[in-house]
Amino acid sequence: MGRAGSTVAARGRRETAPPGYECLDGEVPVLYAPRLAGKARELSGYLAQGHRALGQILSVEPPRIAAYLVADENWSVAPRENARPYPTGLPYFTRSVDPPALVLPGELSPVFRPRTAATLPLTVWHELAHAFLLGREVVRTPAWLREFVPQSASAAVARRVGLPLEEHLSRIEREPGFTVRDFRGPAGAEDQMSFQNLLLVLGAAALEEFGEGFLHSIFHALWDEDEIVDGERAEELLADALGPGGREWLVSRPEFQEGPP
Ligand SMILES: [Zn+2]
Predict the structure, then answer these.
(1) Lower CB count within 10 Å: N or C terminus of the chain?
(2) pLDDT reading at 8 higher than 70
(3) Confidence at residue 230, expressed as pLDDT on a 0 to 100 scale
(4) Residue 7 DSSP class
(5) Interval between CA 6 and ligand 1 midpoint (Å)
(6) Bridge partner list, 103
């Protein structure tokens, strides 16, 4: 989050994997712990699908990125911006290496739910969508819009590659006690997950109603925006991206209501 750095290859950047890691070539090369070779092949497939689909949906040249599949025992030396390691089991995107990289764990943290055949690919495509968005300069936006974009993009990739989401969506708790607009951080991991899940439901519903064209519009609108986006502007950008009837639809959605103060 925060300001996107330049996409220019910078001084002092390095490509570093923990010692002994191997590389699986592909549209997105995967550097992996040798004991995770099977998982590396599975992820390589999701990464190629997502990279290709997002390039098409957004009409952009996909960014040059890599993925690191990091074993828990090496998590503390995984590439990252901050000095302290992030919690294990949580994938993230980092520009601390060249090319920028998705860092993926051998096993997703148990906070990821629901657990279905769609959980892992959706998670990979979510991080990939962040990578696409941050391939250009982006201003700050409210949390709901910042995470709605990758959640709806991951659902759009699922549609393109024929991964059914019905079961996954049916297992999401629709009333966690907040909506996407009144969710406030810092929050515990479970509430974060509920927030992300509400955004996935909203994104899948938007795809159903408007098709995937709104993703092209919202990514490009965010790249064109040069002032910090507040709540009102965020709503306007998304409503415009959805197209005719977008605003009415958005404010009618239960996930988007403003809760009690
Ligand atoms: Zn995210």
Answers:
(1) C
(2) no
(3) 96
(4) S
(5) 20
(6) 68, 92
Q: Closest by alpha carbon to 215, among 101, 60, 46?
A: 60
Task: Note whether 193 and 113 are within 8 A (CB).
Answer: yes
Which amino acid, 139? V
The structure tokens listed for 190 are 């479970």
Classify 169 as helix, strand or coil.
helix
pTM to 2 decimal places = 0.92
Mean pLDDT, residues 46-52 taken together: 98
CA of 126 to the centre of ligand 1 (A): 6
Instruction: Tell me how many degrees the CA angle 90-164-106 measures, rounded to the nearest 5.
Output: 25
CA of 187 to the centre of ligand 1 (A): 14
Please state, as a whole number, how many other Cβ atoms lie within 10 Å of the Cβ of residue 152: 24
Within 8 A by CB and 6+ apart from 142, the residues are 181, 229, 230, 231, 234
Q: Which residues are found with C-beta within 5 Å of the ion, ligand 1? A: 147, 150
